[in-house]
Specification:
Histone, subunit A; Rossmann fold; alpha/beta; six-stranded parallel sheet
Length: 315
């Protein structure tokens, strides 16, 4: 996926808005994009899927009518969608926007997708024959927690960035180690995602922890009131529960309730707890990037001024 990079001053400009879940990225992005006549490129790994609307906090049709959005509703739930596909499709979107002279604003909280889009991906090897099958057998015999504990021992840096419930990425990290003989985190560090054909401005949204956690609780309640359980029930009637999007944060909690494994009170308590933990992991990922300029979501004018300077729009 390597490309020949032009000199830095000739690279097209790309702005990025990141932050943890529930911090207010959607509204801030709309407030920034409209006066700049920018278009938004989604960088949320679940908003790419059709039918997952309420539980992904997907921008409404009204919001998408205010500012064009890209890479929203581009895949059906059973479709394979990963960072490589996102990088490929996202770079095509960016190329189209630049040809039209439209500033792109990448918005989302999926750090790996954003890194892949901006800097490219590295070759993490193909697992030796039988490795994937054996790991699947071990998943059955040891359970996901057993494999996660193995990953924590072998590659604590990679494990620390993953949700302990993320079966796909835990297995993939273990596969990479067997294919290359090196930890995934070491491969990422060595590569450093240096395939960067863009000039980049990164803005980050942050709030005091107590305020962010309060917003998380309020948003979960609002999403449930908007019909999130009914959305999950409908998805479960059409797709198997082990489908990758249905194992995502929130959906797996509601499905556990619908399947009778958890009470309603337990499902919601764990959903809110795990959402707080997810926000903490997001912040850990983004705070490791020294290029991000951090703002409170209320600092719209300051962020707009920063973007105008970057895009050469200042009078």
């Amino acid at each position: 996926m390597a490309v020949s990079n032009p000199s830095p001053k000739d690279r097209p400009r790309v702005a990025v808005l990141v932050g943890p879940t529930a911090v207010g990225k959607t509204q801030v992005a709309l407030n920034l994009a409209r006066p700049l006549k920018a278009e938004i490129v989604n960088a949320d790994s679940l908003q790419v899927y059709r039918e997952l609307n309420i539980g992904t906090a997907k921008p409404s049709f009204k919001e998408r009518a205010l500012v064009p959005h890209h890479l929203v509703d581009v895949a059906d739930p059973p479709a394979a969608y990963d960072a490589a596909r996102y990088c490929r499709e996202g770079r095509a979107v960016l190329a189209g926007l630049h040809r039209r002279g439209v500033p792109p604003l990448i918005v989302g909280g999926t750090g790996l997708y954003i890194k892949a889009l901006l800097y490219g991906l590295f070759d993490d090897g193909s697992p030796p024959g039988g490795v994937r099958h054996r790991l699947r057998q071990e998943l059955t015999s040891l359970g996901l927690s057993g494999l996660y504990q193995r990953l924590k021992y072998l590659d604590p840096a990679a494990a620390g960035r993953l949700n302990p419930q993320d079966t796909y990425r835990i297995l993939r990290a273990l596969e990479v180690m067997e294919a290359t003989g090196r930890p995934l985190s070491a491969l990422q560090a060595a590569h450093r995602f240096q395939d960067c054909p863009y000039q980049i401005l990164k803005l980050g949204l942050t709030l005091p922890r107590e305020e962010l956690y309060r917003r998380i609780g309020q948003r979960v309640d609002a999403m449930l009131a908007a019909g999130w359980l009914e959305e999950a029930r409908g998805l479960l009637s059409r797709y198997p529960p082990d489908l990758k999007p249905l194992k995502a944060l929130g959906y797996r909690h509601l499905i556990a309730f619908l399947k009778g494994r958890w009470t309603w009170e337990d499902a919601i308590t764990l959903l809110k707890r795990d959402t707080r933990r997810y926000a903490k992991r997001q912040l850990t990922w983004f705070r490791a990037d020294p290029e991000i300029k951090w703002f409170d979501p209320s600092q719209i004018e300051e962020m707009r001024h920063c973007l105008e300077g970057f895009l050469g729009m200042e009078e």
